[in-house]
Design a protein that fits this description.
Length: 125
């Protein structure tokens, strides 16, 4: 499902529900997971360790971009901050919302390009 900007939606950038490999590092903890959804300015994912809101992160995304008839993986490295944490169950699983607070324009554009491929295919369908 793709959420688009509307008067009732505070998000400025489109978001897609896609699983993209993701590694987050807090300095003392490295976690490997995948996004549940992704936008130009942030990601939502599940982790197996509690991370305090407002924790600064180093983020590595492996973004599958289509180049002609091939898929090329683009590694995006940026900084982020945890803006929301939700406890999912007693098994120490949490959903976390991450805001990309330090990302190059080029990498943000690559995320937008990835998202737009799904927006275009949705319009055609």
């Amino acid at each position: 499902m793709i959420q688009r900007f509307s008067v009732n939606n505070r998000r400025q950038h489109p978001r897609v529900d896609k699983n993209v490999p993701l590694k987050i590092s807090t300095g003392d903890v490295d976690l490997v997971t995948e996004t549940k959804n992704l936008s130009r300015t942030g990601a939502y994912c599940r982790v197996n360790k509690f991370i305090e809101p407002m924790t600064k992160l180093k983020i590595h995304l492996l973004l599958p971009l289509k180049k002609g008839s091939k898929i090329a993986t683009k590694k995006i490295t940026c900084q982020g901050v945890i803006v929301r944490v939700e406890n999912l169950n007693e098994n120490n699983e949490y959903s976390v919302a991450i805001y990309f607070n330090d990302i190059s324009a080029r990498d943000a554009d690559s995320i937008t390009e990835y998202i737009n491929t799904f927006l275009k295919s949705e319009k055609v369908a």
